[in-house]
Design a protein that fits this description.
Elements lengths: L2 E5 L4 H12 L3 E8 L4 H17 L3 E5 L1 H17 L6 H20 L4 E3 L4 E4 L2 E4 L16 H4 L2 E2 L7 H10 L20 H8 L5 E5 L4 E5 L21 E6 L4 E5 L6 E12 L9 E6 L7 E7 L9 E10 L6 E6 L2 E8 L1
Parallel strand pairs: 1-2, 1-4, 2-3, 4-7, 8-11
Antiparallel strand pairs: 5-6, 6-17, 8-9, 10-11, 12-15, 12-17, 13-14, 13-16, 14-15, 16-17
Length: 341
């Protein structure tokens, strides 16, 4: 019989994923990954343990706090110091959930790991989930074939409402609980978190005509397209650009200035392991909640560096943000993605 490690977060989705596998009669172990000392993880561990007890499965706690800080939190701070807007969840999936957890599972003679992600997998190919509002494929573009051959996503073919209904049916104790914050290791706001680790670096705020309007306390406190928190009357103003070399924040009153048709993606990963034939027509997303946008991927002739590509959209896209992920789809299939330069 195949042995499966099920990642339990203490939430509805992972609990139902485990319950479905239990119902199927597989040999499984519930695993909680202790990644931080915030109240969210302490409460999550208690709930995960309770789920394992209800389902009558073995329960294991993996203390990955040291690795999580080094690979995820430090990465997040480093990228922000550079003035970028990183997505730590993308890196966490690659390095921790489908990296370290999978490594430890295989060493303990497991055949698969399973998670509560809303995504579908078939023959090493990833597809968007049935529930389009909960689909999490966007965060998985860094995965590779070696990882995918050992992964199961039990709830990918269900909607969130169906999952909550099953949670009640399986008598799991948390149906309808509050959703967790966007970044798991940040209990309050991103700016409050950054202020604890990054020293202020004041600079000029100018408009798109280079007129000085005021001062900022650090480029890392702003993201492209941001409107709130700029602090000028006579607006609204929008963050248009961050001049990293000269530490200048550029703003505009014209929201149309935020729209661009092209971007360069670095560190591009193709889930198949092979570069497709280019140019390639795709549907691209430049942020998690962004709509699919028709685009063409081309070889980036400017940098001439491997895994750098140009992405040309059919229509201008609002607030293309360096550091964020651009992710490529063909129909419902996730082809890959990269980091926006």
């Amino acid at each position: 019989m195949k042995k499966i490690f099920v990642a339990l977060s203490g939430g509805v989705d992972s609990g139902v994923a485990a319950a479905l596998l239990k119902k199927a009669g597989v040999d499984m172990i519930g695993v909680f990954m202790k990644l931080d000392d915030t109240p969210r993880f302490k409460e999550g561990e208690k709930k995960a343990k309770k789920v394992a007890k209800i389902l009558k499965i073995p329960f294991l706690v993996l203390d990955l706090r040291k690795e999580f800080k080094k690979r995820i939190v430090d990465y997040f701070l480093k990228e922000n110091k550079r003035g970028l807007t990183p997505n730590p969840c993308v890196v966490c999936n690659k390095e921790i959930k489908f990296g370290l957890l999978l490594e430890k599972a295989l060493k303990l003679n497991a055949d698969f790991i399973a998670t509560g992600h809303y995504v579908r997998i078939k023959n090493g190919r990833l597809f968007a989930a049935k529930d389009k509002n909960k689909d999490q494929s966007y965060f998985l573009w860094k995965l590779n074939q070696k990882q995918l051959k050992h992964v199961l996503f039990p709830i990918g073919d269900y909607t969130r409402k169906e999952v909550e209904k099953m949670a009640r049916k399986f008598k799991l104790p948390f149906a309808g609980v509050k959703k967790s914050q966007e970044i798991c290791f940040i209990p309050a706001t991103v700016n409050d978190f950054l202020k604890q680790y990054i020293k202020p670096k004041p600079g000029q705020i100018v408009n798109n005509k280079k007129k000085v309007l005021g001062r900022h306390q650090g480029l890392y406190f702003y993201t492209i397209g941001q409107r709130k928190g700029i602090g000028f009357s006579g607006g609204p103003y929008y963050v248009l650009d961050k001049n990293l070399k000269n530490n200048i924040l550029v703003v505009t009153k014209n929201e149309k200035d935020l729209c661009k048709k092209e971007l360069i993606a670095r560190n591009v990963n193709w889930l198949s392991g092979k570069e497709p034939k280019l140019p390639l027509r795709v549907a691209a997303k430049i942020r998690y909640r962004h709509e699919y946008a028709p685009a063409t991927i081309i070889k980036n002739l400017k940098f001439k560096i491997k895994n750098y590509y140009g992405v040309i959209f059919d229509k201008p896209q609002r607030a293309i943000t360096p550091g964020q992920s651009v992710v490529f789809y063909k129909g419902q299939e996730l082809l890959g993605g990269g980091i926006i330069c």
